[in-house]
Structure formats: C-alpha cells, structure tokens
TrEMBL record:
GO terms for molecular function: oxidoreductase activity. The keyword Oxidoreductase applies. Keywords: Oxidoreductase. GO terms for cellular component: cytoplasm. InterPro entries: AKR, Aldo-Keto_reductase, NAD(P)_OxRdtase_dom_sf, NADP_OxRdtase_dom. Residues 19-285 form the NADP-dependent oxidoreductase domain. The keyword Oxidoreductase applies. This is Oxidoreductase.
Length: 291
C-alpha cells in the first residue's frame, strides 16, 4: 500500500480515483506559457506521481498552450488503465499569454480535438467547461450554449464525462439540465472559502469537488496559524493545507501543482497526515483572519 492510499478514494465519472492527485499546470513555462525551464524534470515529476499511485491528473491544452499535454503524453503514454486525465476547455491563449474566452461551437470543438491529439487519446475521460464570464471567479450567466456543444461532443463519443469550472450553484443546476455534471473545479483553500456551502451540497449529491489553488496558487499560502500547526505536527505548512482539505469533505479531490520532485513527494505524503481536532479547529478560523 502506498502512502497516498491513505487519502481514500472518491468517484470521478465512472472511475474511483485516489483523493490525492496532481495538477499539471505548473509544468509549462513561467506564466503557464511556453516550454518548461527543465523538460526532463517535468517528465520525472509526472512519472513519479503515477508511480506513487496518483491516478487523477488535471490539465488543459491551454497550458503552454499545448505544451503541458504534450509533456504528459511523452511522460506517460500509453497510459495506465486506471489513470483519469481531466482536461478543460473554454479559453485560448493570446500571443502575449493572456487568457481569452473561447466559447463558440468551433472553438470548443477544436479545443476537444487539440486535447485528444496532444494527449494521444481517442476519448477524453472528463472535460470541464471553464466558465469565463469573469476569469478570476464565478459570475452568473447562462452556460446553455457552450455546454450543449460539449454534450454534443459527448454524444459523438469524444468526451466521456463533463464537469464545470469557475461555476456558480445556478450554473451547476442549469448544467444538470443539459448533461450529467460529474465534478466542479473552483478556487478553494484554507484562506479562500467562498464555496463552503457548495462543497457540502455537492458532497450530499455525490459530486466531486476539485479545488484549484489548493496551496494558494502562484503565491502559496503563508500564515502564522498554518506554520504553528505544521511545527507542532512536524509537518510542512503545505502538507497541513492539503490534509485540512482532505478532512474538510469526502468529495474533495486534490490536484496540487508543482514542477519540483521534492515538493511532489512532500505533497503526496500529506495523505498520511492525520490532523488532530484542535488543529482543525484552529485552521478553520484561518479564513476569518485572511478575510
Ligand atoms: N480551473 C481553473 O481555472 C484552474 C486555475 C488554476 C489551476 N487549476 C488547476 O489546479 C491545479 C493546482 O493549482 P496550482 O498549481 O495553480 O496551485 P497550487 O497547487 O495551489 O500551488 C502551486 C504553487 O505552489 C508551489 N508548491 C507546490 N508544492 C509546494 C510545496 N510542497 N512547498 C512549497 N511550494 C509548493 C508550486 O511551486 P513549485 O513548482 O516550485 O513547487 C506553485 O508555485 C493546477 O495544476 C491546474 O491543474 C485550475
């Protein structure tokens, strides 16, 4: 049994995945644009993640663009049967690295085809529609048109399951009228807890919630509470942040991102970190201080 088995499992589409997975966004170059600084290190991180038991990898063809998926293919293809690669569509990159909404039928179809080609797959396991009404956080607006396109691609057999990213509760309800929504991927971590109620609702409904920026994103979390708890438990702050998320709700699937082998090992070891109740209580108040 590997250490990440201790994170438990949860259903993602028709697969049961380990709750500690890996987010591949950090494998592209600075600003998620262009090639990585160290190509071989990127391959090594992916190979070690899967060898350690990770069977859920999050990516998108707009990371790089194309580059992250090409590295995943180079490192891991042919893929293990139990590996679930989740990708997302709904944006494209400008020549300056900007993130541009790409919601037309042609753009979404091309994005699915780009993901298939660059990952070397005939069908994508899970595709999240990345909602872009506001690039920085969920904002209301109908997703009927773009989600109908994804549902058509699902009927054509190019996409197995559909999820939503950067979504409001209203959009999740609207989406469920169009196709089954197997996961929701929104920003959430110890210091950013806007989705508390949504997570509990999705847990009751058996839907996976996948927090992006679980460690705080480009500027990892820093807090004296986190450091103090970590010191008491002889763990690192990042391990405590991940262990808290695992404890927060059973439907949370983790995809911490790193381009570093040592950080990968540290993050995967968080599966074995049991947080005592008093530490959880202290950490629960971190967002109040951050707010
Ligand atoms: N749906 C969306 O809109 C969306 C948006 C953003 C991200 N995502 C997905 O979510 C995944 C996770 O997000 P993320 O990678 O941006 O943020 P994250 O996991 O919160 O944090 C990544 C950052 O933390 C650092 N880090 C990782 N492990 C560390 C450790 N043990 N100690 C110290 N620093 C550590 C990384 O740098 P090093 O490389 O140096 O370790 C990187 O700077 C992404 O890979 C992507 O798949 C989705």
């Amino acid at each position: 049994m590997s250490i990440i088995d201790q994170s438990g499992t949860f259903n993602l589409g028709d697969h049961k995945v380990r709750r500690l997975g890996y987010g591949a966004m950090q494998l592209a170059g600075p600003g998620v644009f262009g090639p990585p600084r160290d190509h071989d290190a990127a391959l090594a991180v992916l190979r070690e993640a899967v060898a350690s038991g990770v069977n859920h990898i999050d990516t998108s063809d707009f990371y790089g663009p194309h580059i992250t998926n090409q590295i995943i293919r180079e490192a891991l293809h042919p893929y293990r049967d139990d590996l679930v690669i989740v990708t997302k569509v709904g944006a494209r990159r400008g020549t300056d690295g900007s993130w541009i909404p790409a919601f037309s039928r042609d753009e979404l179809t091309e994005a699915v085809q780009d993901n298939l080609r660059n990952l070397g797959l005939d069908v994508l396991d899970v595709v999240n529609l990345r909602i872009m009404f506001d690039v920085h956080g969920p904002a209301e607006g109908s997703i009927e048109e773009p989600l109908t396109v994804l549902a058509d691609l699902q009927r054509r057999g190019l996409v197995r399951h559909v999820g939503l990213s950067n979504a409001t509760s209203g959009q999740i309800a609207e989406g469920r009228g169009i196709t089954e929504i197997v996961c929701v991927q929104n920003q959430y971590n110890l210091a950013h807890r806007n989705d508390d109620r949504l997570i509990d609702d999705l847990a009751r409904q058996g839907t996976a919630y996948v927090p992006f920026f679980p460690l705080g994103g480009f500027t990892p979390l820093q807090s004296s509470t986190l450091s103090n708890v970590a010191a008491r438990l002889s763990a690192t702050p990042m391990q405590v942040a991940l262990a808290w998320l695992l404890r927060r709700a059973p439907n949370i699937l983790l995809i911490p991102g790193t381009a570093s082998l040592s950080h990968l090992r540290e993050n995967l070891a968080a599966a074995g970190l049991a947080l005592p109740d008093d530490a959880v209580e202290e950490l629960n108040h971190m967002a109040d201080v951050a707010a």
